[in-house]
Specification:
The chain is of the alpha/beta class and 163 residues long. The chain has one domain: Rossmann fold, CATH 3.40.50. The chain is built from six helices and seven strands, in the order βαβαααβαββββα. It has a five-stranded mixed β-sheet with strand order 2-1-3-4-5, with helices on both faces. A two-stranded antiparallel sheet has the order 6-7. Strand 1, helix 1 and strand 2 form a beta-alpha-beta unit. Helix 4 crosses helix 6.
């Protein structure tokens, strides 16, 4: 049975999009996958999606560097594939997770809901171009060794816990 990591947008969405994560996890489990969901991890740590990120409760359990390190480690060590929720391209965190999965040789899939209501998994052949706030670009068809000035060292350092 394949283990998949569920990635998607959180920040900027009502209740951090936890409802969509729960729905995606349910669909994947019904299809027979083992699911690693960051929303489930956050809830288990005491994160309250009804409160702002900087609330007293959430500030105690949420540190972006620690979260990224944990998520990247789960992708690299526990998962066979990554499944992207709808609107993932608008999420810098989900884009980073897609890059980590893609360049570590994991399959990357999108959870797509058709107009008919049918939900499908569509395999991505490459990760689309991702633009960073500082203007740097990283394209999904570049080999990670082709541009050592890219973000791969930083992503690996975060995954190793050396943020």
């Amino acid at each position: 049975m394949k283990t998949v990591y569920l990635a998607g947008p959180m920040r900027g969405y009502p209740l951090y999009n936890f409802g969509e994560f729960a729905r995606g996890a349910r669909i994947l489990r019904d299809l027979g996958y083992l699911v690693e969901s960051p929303a489930e991890y956050d809830l288990a740590k005491g994160f309250n999606p009804a409160e702002p990120l900087d609330s007293e409760t959430n500030a105690k359990v949420f540190d972006i560097n620690a979260v990224l390190a944990e998520d990247f480690r789960i992708i690299l060590e526990k998962c066979d594939a990554l499944v992207m929720l709808p609107r993932w391209r608008q999420s810098s965190g989900a884009c980073a997770e897609a890059v980590v999965a893609y360049y570590s040789g994991k399959e990357v899939w999108e959870l797509v809901e058709r107009l008919s209501g049918k939900v499908e998994l569509v395999r991505m052949k490459k990760v689309p171009q991702i633009r960073f706030d500082d203007g740097a670009q990283y394209t999904g068809d570049q080999h990670p060794e082709a541009n050592r000035g890219d973000r791969s060292d930083q992503l690996q350092a975060i995954a190793d816990g050396d943020s």
